Every structure is written in C-alpha cells, then in structure tokens.
Amino acid sequence: xxxxxxxxxxxxxxxxxxxxxxxxxxxxxxxxxxxxxxxxxxxxxxxxxxxxxxxxxxxxxxxxxxxxxxxxxxxxxxxxxxxxxxxxxxxxxxxxxxxxxxxxxxxxxxxxxxxxxxxxxxxxxxxxxxxxxxxxxxxxxxxxxxxxxxxxxxxxxxxxxxxxxxxxxxxxxxxxxxxxxxx
Length: 183
Hints:
Layout: H1 3-9, H2 16-22, E1 33-35, E2 40-42, H3 51-54, H4 59-62, H5 83-88, H6 100-108, H7 116-127, H8 132-144, H9 155-163, H10 170-177
Antiparallel strand pairs: 1-2
Helix pairs in contact: 1-7, 8-9
C-alpha cells in the first residue's frame, strides 16, 4: 500500500486534544512509567504536548495520575490493558514507550516514521470502516433499537474507541448498520 493510500485510510474524527479534553485513559496515560522496552523510566512526558491541549485539565488527576479513575473517563468506565500487557504483546516500540496515543500525538504534529504503517493498521483494525470495535458498537446499537449516540449502549466500547480517536457519528452508524445481520 502506498503512503498516500495509507494516510487516506487513517481518519480519526477526534484530535489528540479532543481525546484528552473529553476524559480518557482514567487520567493515567502520561503517568510515570518504567518501560521494559527501552529499560528507562519516564516522567512528565505530557510536557511535550501543546499547552492548549491541556487547558482546563487537572494534570495530576486527568493526565498523569498513577491511579486510574473511572470518573475521569467520558463514559465513566474502565477499559484497556496494562502497560505490561501492551509491552508483552509487542505493541509498544522504542520510539513511543507509552504506546499508540503517544504515537498519535506525535503523528498529529507532523512526525512521520517507519512505525506509521503499523500504527495506522492497528487503528484501522480497531476504529476504521471495517474496525472490530467500531462495528461491534454499531451492531450493539442496531440490536438495541436505541439512537447511535446513546451512551448507555456499550460504554466500554465507546470509551475504547475514544482512546483511539474515534467517536461514532450518525453517518458512520447509518453506513455500518447496513452490514449488520439481524439476530
């Protein structure tokens, strides 16, 4: 796949700023960590983010907390795995020891690396048109008979998608609902 086609495939509808401002990662994404991938400690990595992304956020509880708080998240649920799980799965690479969202923040600011194809592929498998979590949510909404934006339908999947920079839209729902097989 050419780089142009790859980038066309990558269409999150939330910027990294919007993901943070909405309430994500239980407030822990940029907490102090020890990376078993780089064999280094990291702290205050959030400081590389633009100030306006963090405006109005309480850094110790909403961005760099060592304690996950479901109350910080948009959908008030916990989702995702531990850093150790992500590292042992091979999903964390040296350039971005915090993982996908750190890569997304840097990509959003124009950095391009050899890891872009892998990360965009991961995003597509999660939140892209044929993405597992996006289509899982669409199917649950169809089968519930509720509106596409009803937050009580699968809040964990909604929070997961938000962490990947995606929020279900009416247009995406209508298109995806055509592919849902009735139970």
